[in-house]
Design a protein that fits this description.
The complex is a heterotrimer of chains A (341), B (324) and C (289). With 341 residues, chain A is mainly alpha-helical. Helices cover 77% and strands 0% of the residues of chain A. The two termini of chain A are 34 Å apart. In chain B, the strands form 2 sheets. Chain B has an 8-stranded mixed beta sheet. A 4-stranded antiparallel beta sheet of chain B has the order 2-1-4-5. Chain B is built from 12 helices and 12 strands. The longest helix of chain B has 18 residues. Chain C has 289 residues and is mainly alpha-helical. Helices cover 73% and strands 0% of the residues of chain C. Chain C contains 10 helices and no strands. The chains are: A mainly alpha (341), B alpha/beta (324), C mainly alpha (289). At the B-C interface, loops of B face α1 of C.
Chain lengths: 341, 324, 289
């Protein structure tokens, strides 16, 4: 009879108390409410900023120019076309009304057409591109964990040896260099110099390797450092001394008593790392020409495609907040000391 | 009486940013079979370190720089990892001070009690489980088959300490070390735990080293008392003598500053001053700055530990001067 | 019988300096940072060419006697451009942290000191800012405010103050209730005096560490903006710009990518090692062997 690797007592305890259902639900509801409010705040602020920005009708300007080529500004047809655009996008309404209309649409996930491509609805674009970005982000975080955690454990166990110093120095570098610079180096080495992997695209496995690694290096470094600190902290705890005092040998104490408690806090940094990743996709997709949400966002910003900008921000931010929520729930499950509050 | 443990000139140092701390500065004592020895002192006196270092359970900064500790014919301080591991938890067990942090929070309590048995390969799984359930019952945890599966946080402080005791007793140790086992507990729970320890001591026929800062608790439980100050032994005597004729000013001070039931009206006299800075011990007798009897020689020379009678030792210039 | 060892109790700053000195990487990082800052300040004087001066005849050249790092598509000296990128990055890095310090410091201090609903209000804003990926907000702000040097570091500062606010608030709360403040109050000291003499000196450490990490972070953000096309306007050079341009030419003229990438990485690493070292040095938990 031993403690199994999946023996995490938190939620089990809470469940057995019969208390979890009510408290858990209340906690969940409160968080969802916070997310909803934050999203509304974000959307409103973004809208207001767009409104205030100079060159507000930049796109319209382009439309005007396009129209001007085939007709003149005095031509009533010109005015009519312009008006048609304004109506299509609801720009003739006062700001508050625009915001409300957007919010109304957002709740049911309909965001209207984008400036740059009136033929397509934004929600379709998102449906198309979100899976790509999500796959990229997910593979990156998995890579970061699968490589980072063992690295951190190794560094902790071989504390103050050259292995430790090397690992930690490399991890500082990993944290210091943003993913797009890493991407650049990876491309330089593996695509240009060695010619092993392609420099862009998103078809097949080979194109996916470099972007994933580029995105994952930062989180990998953070995970490794955190794991190391967490394990070292755990090893300083009283209950480890007790384990040794009972006659435990290094291997048993570390594997059975130290590892699992140190893994639990890891969950708390996964949230911020996912956030970093979602943002990182903006750069990485740009560099590797991956047609995902990040690229959508970047293009929207540069071309001032406001509806698209607001919406892609909204989606990315929402994804991050939901990830954080999942992470918090996971943490509660794993650690019996956490009372959901 | 057979000798179980013989500690000789133990010296332990810690290396800190501020300097080197001589936590234990040359102490020697013996422990016989079935005896219970109390080691009493303030925080920083070195009492815990002096015993925990025997099993190499001190902080990584700590270094045993001298001495030997003969236990059942072998020097504990010279054992290799395997031998040490064999003794820990089986021949010598420890109960630690803080029950809230000394148990692993994510491992079931019963498993933690079984571990010493399994690790020393004394029984098979099923047998060990039965034994653990018995033990939990014996230390006063009701419904022990059910509680076996609980996690530490489902227990109160006193109950957790009982679990620790069960854990320590699992392999029938010859020597039990109790490092301030009741300091972190309520007074009423304290009494219960002490009673339990008393019963178990007799039942198991164990020798006990009981470390505490509370002289009254020690005198109620132990056969013999050692008082320590700033890393040195200042007095050692059987409990009756310590209570009747304490010789060292520090021991006297400890007695005067503790309350006993039935001592209403007695004035509480604290020992003046503070424990010494660990990196900057006073010269001569380390206690002299706080001693109301300090003489000129106390500043210059450290008093040696001398035998006043067959089983009573003291380190004080006063006493030395008075004996023939 | 007493050995000769350090017997005086070590002051806060001395302990910090001792710990910092022991960390070789941190000291090296610190030295490099000082050199980089000096280069940044002196850029207009030591750059061999103005950053926007084209030499069309000598475009796309590799490293040579005239052009240490080679030239770009318009024949501009890459070395000078990199030097000015360093300068801009430093301006943005330090400028944004200044904004962060002001906004975060004041809000955090007010929240900590006053407590009550002001505290709750400010902290809920902080929570929202934390939950929201700041880079996205940066992009939006820059879109709104414009792409100048000043507006960019303002934008970065405006999105980055949350961590500082939380930190300051935490410090103020902790110190507000600590014993020596009680003692000072009992002795009749004014609030302002208490802040100045007791609270501020203790806060400097963590605040400094926060800022030290913020500088490379801001540089990263600005470059990130530039990579997607939202950085400082060309011909003003920024590492992000240079890298972005370099990516376009990487097959044919790798030097346009290598030099900016390496120098940028080097700069970021130096700053980060320094910040890391500062953080470890302020933390009394680090042991001595």
């Amino acid at each position: 009879m031993n403690s199994e690797p999946w023996d995490f007592p938190g939620l089990l305890l809470n469940m057995s108390n019969g208390v979890v259902d009510m408290r858990f639900l209340k906690f969940l509801l409160k968080r969802l409410l916070t997310i909803a409010i934050s999203m509304v705040v974000v959307i409103v602020i973004t809208y207001v900023l767009m409104w205030l920005a100079p060159g507000n009708f930049f796109e319209l300007q382009r439309v005007r120019d396009a129209i001007a080529r085939v007709t003149t500004p005095d031509d009533p047809a010109y005015q009519a076309t312009l008006k048609g655009f304004e109506e299509r996008y609801g720009l003739n309404n006062p700001l508050w009304k625009q915001i409300l209309m957007y919010l109304k649409g957002a709740v049911v996930f309909k965001f209207g057409p984008s400036f740059s491509d009136p033929a397509r609805n934004i929600e379709d674009l998102i449906k198309e591109k979100f899976p790509i970005t999500f796959t990229l982000a997910l593979s990156s975080i998995l890579f970061a964990l699968v490589v980072g955690v063992p690295l951190g454990i190794l560094a902790a166990l071989k504390k103050n040896t050259w292995i430790d110093y090397t690992a930690m120095t490399v991890s500082v570098i990993g944290v210091a260099i943003p993913s797009y610079v890493v991407a650049v180096f990876l491309i330089l080495i593996f695509s240009i110099y060695l010619g092993w992997l392609p420099t862009s695209g998103w078809e097949g496995i080979r194109t996916k390797i470099l972007p994933t690694i580029a995105l994952a290096l930062g989180p990998l470094a953070s995970v490794a450092r955190f794991t190391r600190v967490s394990l070292l902290d755990t090893l300083n705890q009283d209950f480890i001394r007790t384990a040794y005092a009972k006659g435990g040998d290094d291997r048993t104490v570390i594997m059975k008593h130290a590892l699992r408690p140190s893994m639990i806090p890891l969950v708390t940094i996964i949230g911020p790392q996912m956030a970093y990743l979602m943002v990182g996709t903006v750069w990485v997709e740009n560099i590797f020409r991956i047609p995902g949400l990040g690229q959508l966002f970047a293009n929207a910003a540069v071309t001032r495609d406001y509806p698209l900008l607001v919406t892609s921000t909204f989606i990315l931010a929402l994804a991050v907040m939901i990830m954080n929520l999942i992470v918090d729930v996971l943490y509660a499950i794993l650690d019996p000391r956490i009372k959901l509050d | 009486m057979m000798e179980l443990l013989n500690v000789n000139n133990l010296k332990v140092e810690f290396h800190r940013v501020e300097g080197i701390v001589k936590a234990v500065d040359g102490i020697s004592y013996k422990l016989n079979k079935g005896e219970s020895l109390g080691i009493v002192g303030e925080s920083g006196s070195g009492k815990s370190v002096s015993v925990l270092s025997l099993l190499r359970l001190i902080n990584r900064n700590g270094r045993i720089v001298d001495g030997e500790a003969i236990f059942l014919g072998k020097d504990l301080l010279k054992l290799n990892k395997e031998e040490l591991r064999d003794i820990r938890g089986k021949d010598i067990s420890i109960i630690f001070q803080n029950p809230m942090t000394s148990l692993n929070p994510i491992i079931r309590v019963g498993i933690q009690v079984i571990e010493p048995i399994i690790w020393h390969r004394l029984m098979k799984n099923e047998e060990a489980r039965e034994r653990a359930i018995e033990l939990l019952e014996r230390v006063g945890i009701p419904e022990s088959p059910k509680r076996f599966l609980n996690y530490p946080l489902q227990f109160s402080g006193g109950m957790r300490q009982r679990v620790m005791i069960a854990m320590a007793l699992a392999c029938h140790p010859k020597l039990l070390i109790a490092d301030e086992p009741t300091t972190a507990l309520d007074v009423t729970i304290q009494a219960q735990i002490m009673e339990l320890l008393q019963e178990l001591k007799e039942e198991y026929g164990m020798s006990v080293i009981f470390i505490t800062h509370d002289l009254s608790v020690a005198t109620n439980f132990c056969d013999r008392i050692i008082t320590m100050y700033a890393g040195k032994i200042v007095e050692e005597a059987p409990v009756e003598e310590i209570l009747k004729t304490p010789l060292h000013p520090y021991t006297k001070g400890l007695l005067n500053s503790t309350l006993e039931i039935g001592s209403r009206g007695k004035k509480l006299v604290p020992i003046p001053g503070n424990p010494p800075n660990p990196t900057k011990h006073p010269s001569g007798c380390k206690f002299h700055p706080r001693c109301s009897f300090a003489m000129e020689i106390c500043q210059r020379e450290e008093p040696p530990l001398v035998n006043i009678s067959e089983n009573h030792r003291v380190a004080c210039h006063l006493i030395k001067g008075e004996s023939k | 019988m007493l050995r000769k060892n350090k017997t005086e109790s070590i002051g806060y700053w001395k302990a910090f300096w001792l710990r910092f000195k022991k960390n070789k990487m941190a000291v090296i990082g610190g030295v490099f940072v000082l050199i980089l800052i000096a280069l940044a300040i002196l850029a207009p004087y030591i750059a061999p060419y103005p950053y926007d001066e084209p030499h069309y005849i000598r475009a796309f050249e590799g490293p040579s006697k005239d052009f240490i790092f080679g030239t770009d598509a318009l024949g501009r000296d890459l070395f000078s451009r990199i030097l000015y990128s360093l300068r801009n990055a430093c301006i943005i890095g330090f400028g944004s942290q200044f904004v962060v310090l002001i906004i975060g410091g004041i809000l955090g201090a007010v929240a900590g000191f006053k407590g009550g609903w002001i505290d709750k209000f400010i902290m809920s804003i902080v929570d929202i800012m934390f939950a929201f990926p700041t880079f996205l907000f940066n992009v939006i702000l820059v879109t709104a405010l414009g792409r100048g040097l000043f507006t960019i570091f303002l934008a970065i500062g405006l999105t980055g103050w949350a961590g500082m606010a939380r930190l300051v608030r935490g410090q103020v709360l902790y110190l507000k209730n600590s014993e020596f403040v009680e003692a000072a109050k009992a002795a009749g000291a004014s609030t302002f005096y208490i802040i100045r003499k007791h609270i501020l000196p203790n806060m400097i450490g963590p605040i400094l560490v926060n800022l030290a990490f913020g500088v490379p972070g801001a540089m990263m953000t600005e470059s990130g903006l530039a990579v997607i096309g939202m950085g400082v306007r060309p011909p003003m050079p920024s590492w992000g710009n240079l890298i972005g341009e370099g990516i376009g030419m990487m097959m044919a003229f790798p030097h346009l990518l290598i030099f900016p990438a390496v120098t940028f990485a080097f700069t970021l690493i130096s700053f980060t090692f320094l910040a890391d070292g500062l953080r470890d040095a302020f933390n009394p938990r680090s042991e001595i062997s």
